[in-house]
Amino acid sequence: MPPSDSYHIAKPPDSPVDDSDSDLEIDLEELDPQTSPGAGTDRSRKKGLLGQTHDAAAAEQQRAPRIALRTLRMGGLRRSAKRNGYGELGRSQDGGDEDAHGLLGHGDPDNTRYSDGSARGGDDAPLLSGHRGGDGDGGDGSGRRRRSFPEGSLRSLGLRLPSFISGAATDQTNHGEEEDKEEDDPSSSRLVAVGSSQSTRFPPNSVSNAKYTAWSFLPVTLYNEFSFFFNMYFLLVALSQAIPALRIGYLTTYVAPLAFVLAITLGKEAFDDIGRRRRDNEANSEAYTVLHFEDPRRGRRGGRPKKKLKSSHVRRGSKRQVLERDRLSDIQEEEEQTEASGIRKASSYVTEISKKSRDLKVGDVLKLTKGHRVPADVIILKCLSHEPPVQSEPEEVPAADETLLLDHVDEPGEGSSGDRDPSTMEDQNSAEESSAGETFIRTDQLDGETDWKLRHPSPMSQNMAIEELVCLRITAGKPDRKVNEFAGTLELLPSRQHVINGDTAHGEGDNDHPKAAPLSIDNTAWANTVIASQATTLAVIIYTGPQTRSALSTSPSRSKTGLLEYEINSLTKILCFLTLAISIILVALEGFGNTKGNIWYVKIMRFLVLFSTIVPISLRVNLDLGKSVYSWFIQRDPGIPGAVVRTSTIPEDLGRIEYLLSDKTGTLTQNEMEMKKIHVGTVSYANDAMDEVSAYVKQGFHFAPSIDPAANAVLATPSTSYSSSANIGATRTRREIGSRVRDVVLALALCHNVTPTREEEEDGQIATSYQASSPDEIAIVRWTESVGLRLASRDRKTIVLEDAETGRTVVKVRILDIFPFTSEGKRMGVVVQFYDKLQHGIPALGSGEIWFYQKGADTVMDSIVAANDWLDEETANMAREGLRTLVVGRKRMSTKEYQEFSSKYHEASLAISGREQGMQAVVSQYLERDLELLGVTGVEDKLQKDVKPSLELLRNAGIKIWMLTGDKVETARCVAVSSKLVARGQYIYTVTKLRRKDAAQESLDFLGSKTDSCLLIDGESLSMFLTHFRREFISVAVLLPTVVACRCSPTQKAEIAKLIKEYTKKRVCCIGDGGNDVSMIQAADVGVGIVGKEGRQASLAADFSIEQFHHLTKLLVWHGRNSYKRSAKLAQFVIHRGLIIAVCQTMYSIAINFEPEGLYKDWLLVGYATVYTAFPVLSLVLDKDVDEDLTNLYPELYKELTSGRSLSYRSFFIWVFVSIYQGCLIQGLSQVLTEVNGPKMVAVSYTVLVLNELLMVAIEITTWHWVMVVSIVGTFLMFVGSIPFLGAYFDLEFLLSVGFLWRVVAIGAISLIPTYAGKLIGRTMKPPSYRKVQGI
Fold it and tell me: Which positions does UniProt annotate for Mg(2+) binding (predicted)?
């Protein structure tokens, strides 16, 4: 039964609780209680306070059951790392009434508690607190001051001291109030006090993808709106109505439409930005567990209880019976005598609190577990293993022995613990524990790399007790965007007070100087990485919010404007020029000197106001409403579940994309590896043939059950594993193949860096998971398990394999040397010694077979393995299938050969210069020669669903696809081939590690002469091109069908997107799923984010969010095409609607002697643009020329949109011509057939104008929708119903006559029939593409 966390007081029969000895007596078990092993500890033996094992303690139990406190020397005590130290003797940690009973029974509770750690580290801390005082204001008049502890000796583990000794210092965590903090200077390095408040104010840890703040919203949005020419034009027209001489009709006629347009646009922008803020708030509200380091005395008092940190195992103080108050002087005297021995109390009391991500601060210590997203840039301090330590000793052991007595004191220099520091507070077994101080992180959201990264804490912090972490201070450089670089220093200071005060070295001796350890990239985890290991990771925050690596690599959000907006802006400039020209011409025809009543330029201004309908203000309203409809369609499309439109201003740009820049990891691939094929020289296995591999493995590693222990202890080795009786009767060839298969499976099961971990699932089952830096290796180990050979356990010295069916251990090896994979070497190897049988201890070097196994890329292994005639061919075949190939080889070594190699290798590792090259030379000489070629493996990086057909369809749609990834060159090449991004047989031109300008120029010349090849380039070479050959590189690259860029930083991705935009002036779409893609997404004209497995950062920053890559094809080819074509038709129709009324006004002005008088005033003018034509024109957003199936069948329909023909100068001027033709006929014939100026003419002209627009809408519709029918018929009925209320403008009696009717019909027919006939002839002579495919 595991021991309790609380202290247990032993009460022998002969020692009653209230016995008053001459000395205050306590139990040794109280001083060194036994506890259950904590998280992060891995000890096999428990030690006493002086490090003596409990075996020795047991021997002394009988003669030393109790010890006088005054005869106890505390200077030599050693403290376990799993405990906060000698806890409060006077009360239970659970609180309650027991808090009132302390060591001194009759005093105030505050005076009778024992603190849980150190007091204030200053020299002026009172030695004794008063008996009547509160939290440190002594009431006994004692003026004595406690001498400060020698800093060099403050590293002993001390018992928790009574509060009347330690004094009641104030809580140092409150040091430096917020208002007193200095602002952080991001250009300088920083000092970070671990677990304490910082003296400098750092930025908050909040993520923001919002484009506006409360203060910037109106200025920025209004600036963006009025930067468009036609909005500024409308504003000037509206303002002109404040001048009486220029006023025409009601002021609201001009002001209200502009205000309405601005309200619609600003409302939409506000709605989008509020949505972004809401999503940001979700991310910023994510809860994290933070370790709170409290002052030892304040940590246990008052307030609601906080959750205890399980891994720190703070003990509850045992309840002690009432003691005599006059014992105080005895204890006080003893404490003063032992003060100089280096008593050290714990520096803090640790609790767990929950904080939202936005509330995290620099210096906070986070507790992270598997699957946690790292919310800020952190330094890893400690890794605590979840696996329970193997207990080699019984749980309940005697408490202590006589070595704790005053007579047994270590002299300084002879192992005295008085000079120990917090980093050595754990017992000697901590060295073994520190070996588990490692964790894996996933960085694919940061840099796009699929391999897990191994991270570990500094040995100094790993071996410290958790409550002593507050004695650490970190020196870190200024924030920068280099995700693969970091340099810092970890310092250990004498106390928390020194850390908070920013002190450096103190004292006089060498031991008083702070200990320091270097920090590198291996000790860090940047924001948006994910913890992948089972162990609990304690990490301190050093950079927050905008100063994190991911934030610095991310561009700020910007407002995006669609290409259609710019095109319409250009067209409105032409219309405005047309308006000005007509105004000047009309005044000129009258004569500048002949103007009556008004000066000529005032007449021009009045004409400009009259003709303002040429530049229709309702254009923005209609387009914005159309965008909202398109966004609604996208988000409600069942074919794109989970789609979100975050920027509703650019849906038309989805139909104009010419360049697609895609991330690889998580976008094109699932980042899940699967072993697909294995080739052993004469035969290849894949898919169902793997069952045959399983049969061979079973034959080779099967041991029959036996009752003989010796037989059950036998293990397989490469030499002995194939003498199975199952091979009897098999042909020689089959035996050879079986032998080859078993050899390669054994090699793959041993040659890796995978570690199995076991964890309990929700249903109580124990599940095994694998941890490794590369998902390739996990895929291979999973495959060996599937064929019968399971990796059971692995540590730094041994690997154990077991039969996957029976669970019997079949192979055990001792790891002699391991050579990890590097990007330069492209191979990894291991030297192992096989156990012949299960045995305790390490076998002698000569007692087992020694083998060297190696696997690596075919390019390097080709020269290492023995000569063969099949390797090149098979690796090429697998590469064509898009598989990632690894060549496996082995070599047997004699004991003498290995000893010779080991000696030379060790000698080379001690060299000062050329160490790496020397070590590699020894490996090459002794190991990497004539390896036996065992086989080739093919691992597939699983693609996202329907990636291949999606890429093919997008290519056929005329979109050039670039793949930008932070992953390795080989990985990118395999994915490019397997996804069919690179066509079969297409030449791949690879450019890597380019450092010279002449070589860069040669590459450009070659690419210029071979523009049908695929360019594969790494980040280093790309940087060379972008720095020295920027223009030349992009001019060649845009001609290539495919470009694959590897090892790209987030900044490089964004730079490529901007470069393509600047050079080609084409629309660029970027798609990604990770935090490393945010810059690229924001730099693109259209950013698409995929909701990734590990985070939504890219999705939140994108304009459009989808769940799968293949949804992009429907988003572009269907929704994008429809949005662009609909908006183009809508824009031209609105321009036609405004232009035709302006032409009517011109004809009227000419007829009345060039006077600037309005033809349609007040309601007629407003009603024409709103009630009488708005809904039918807006219903054009529902039109479609082809069905969705046809757009997928003929993606070439998308290609024609990129030329912009739907809204070009040609189509624009056609509509201008139609408007002039219809306007002249309608107004001219109305004046000819009725009267020049009067209500009859206005009635005929206005009625024909409205009916003309309704019928023009009907003529333009390709595919009818019920909403269109309702809007056209409803608007017509609404117009007819409103005629009786238009008596102020029309002659109502004339409206009821036949003359009115025939005039309307005649003028309408003359206006519409030629227009419709011309359209039919044009379609027949030169049918559009959609008509052609419909005919098929």
Answer: 663, 665, 1073, 1077
